[in-house]
Amino acid sequence: MLSGKRVLLMIGGGIAAYKSLELIRRLRDRGAAVTPVLTRAGAEFVTPLSVSALAGERVHQDLFDLTTEAEIGHIQLSRSADLIVVAPATADFIAKAAQGRADDLASTLLVATDTPVLLAPAMNVRMWTHPATQRNLTQLQADGLRLVGPNDGSMACGEFGPGRMAEPAEILAAIEAALAVGPLQGRHVLVTSGPTHEPIDPVRYIANRSSGAQGTAIAAALRDLGARVSFVSGPATVPPPEGVTVIRVETAQQMAAAVQAALPADAAVFAAAVADWRIANAAGQKMKKDGSGRAPALEFAENPDILATVSRMKAGRPRLVVGFAAETETVVEHATAKRARKGCDWILANDVSPATGVMGGSENAVVLITQAGAEAWPRMGKDAVARRLAARIAAEIG
Ligand code: C5P
After folding, report:
1. Which pLDDT score, from 0 to 100, does residue 181 have?
2. 183 by DSSP, 3-state: which?
């Protein structure tokens, strides 16, 4: 429930603005109070009347509204909220926010407060993937703003791809996570998850059987304790959790770059099954049989070890770095040696030999290796492992 919480909802100018009406209804159903702000462009898509009727409060539109200014100044307006939600957040709004410009009510409110902000971007796919938009988002995330969505899908403009605003239910989940007053409130945690794909040629790749289930569960558990989570995921089979910032990658090299871009973080959990090797002589075109009967020789190059690199950072190292060790024999010995070799603080080790059914399954039996030694946890669901790990992380850095 969100009773006692006040959300300042800024509705930007995009066709997805109609979904914000549904969001207002859901927020109020959950007991939250909603202060609506409609931008000039937003008012082209939804009417002030429908917004204020659903919110049960007057809608704020103008920076220089003397009546409002006398009753409740715009500074007060933003500071009295527990969370500011911008939905839809257009490319233009994101650009203005990244620069700290304050030329209308909504942008001024953002600059006038340190209330946490959640953005639900919505725009055409080309606008979303444009380097300028991505640059602005990187800046805003570095400033501590949270993101929910956008999703992939067909768009009102007829194109297909990322840029669709998250659904009201997803935005609500992100709002609840942002407002959860958990022990990790105000902390940023980075989680890697899933396998990596290493291309052989444009249509073939080397992969592994990681489903991403454990990393996804860990990201959700950290979110539930109030952390802001950056989730760097390879091509996993389970969908990423809601209410976290998802950064999708394919290769180990892309994952390494995405991790560096997402830092600094208070803690980092490296749950991804990163390919140790990539194909050094990957073909630019699809490889074909040449009739000679000779098989192509693949050459391998070592991938960057992301965990070891972050663990050994001289400046800006997360306070707590957690690695995983998937072993098939003498788990504790191997994992203890790995902890020393990688330079991380903790290793969560598990036996992934086929008989255990861990790889791709719903349960896990892990041993936590810390400086103090090895601690075997009973076999439990991956969600329970995640919650227990998140609680330990909270105890360490919360
Ligand atoms: O060396 P190994 O792959 O067994 O180590 C597993 C741990 O190291 C996991 O936490 C995994 O996410 C991390 N790792 C990494 N980058 C690599 C290889 C492994 O971050 N290139």
Report:
1. 60
2. coil
